[in-house]
Automatic annotation (TrEMBL):
Keyword Hydrolase: yes
Organism: Marinomonas rhizomae
This protein's name: 4-hydroxybenzoyl-CoA thioesterase
Record-linked Pfam families: 4HBT_2
PANTHER family linked: 4-HYDROXYBENZOYL-COA THIOESTERASE FAMILY MEMBER (PTHR31793), ACYL-COA THIOESTER HYDROLASE YBGC (PTHR31793:SF37)
Protein keywords: Hydrolase
InterPro entries: 4-hydroxybenzoyl-CoA_TE, HotDog_dom_sf
KW Metal-binding (keyword) present: no
Molecular functions (GO terms): fatty acyl-CoA hydrolase activity
């Protein structure tokens, strides 16, 4: 399945008064990492919206485990990979590593979504070319 990796530096605004990352910030990091995963596959959100007429890939389930804190100034690595691909949904796993090793692991389930004729957001089949890229081992 397709994988990507990116580095993030923990900023002052990511941290709580205890000088560790405030947990909702991890979800923002992981959401951006899903976007980066699609960009690494060759699809920007702008292309997905403008060319493919999809709204994007909203989250329907997310879960995280926190093993060790990250702090202001840390440079962390986020490894992201597609874990499953269905007709209209897909799974992603993110692993955030700091100097102590695996710090946070998150799984997501997302759906490929478009607006129907009435303007209602609905899951749609993932386009074949995107599905093929998700399943590749690049």
């Amino acid at each position: 399945m397709f994988k990507n990796e990116r580095q993030v530096q923990i900023e002052w605004g990511d941290c709580d008064p205890a000088d560790i990352v405030f947990y909702p910030r991890y979800f923002a990091f992981f959401d951006a990492s899903t976007g980066a995963l699609f960009e690494a596959m060759g699809y920007t959100l702008r292309q997905i919206r403008d060319e493919l007429k999809a709204v994007g890939f909203p989250m329907v389930d997310t879960r995280s485990q926190f093993f060790t804190p990250s702090k202001y100034g840390d440079k962390v690595i986020i490894k992201s990979e597609i874990t499953e691909v269905g007709r209209a949904s897909f799974g992603v796993r993110h692993q955030l590593f700091n100097e102590k090793g695996l710090a946070v692991e998150c799984t997501e389930k997302r759906v490929w979504a478009c607006l129907n004729a009435e303007g209602v957001l609905k899951a749609q089949p993932i386009p074949d070319d995107i599905k093929a890229k998700m399943l590749s081992h690049d």
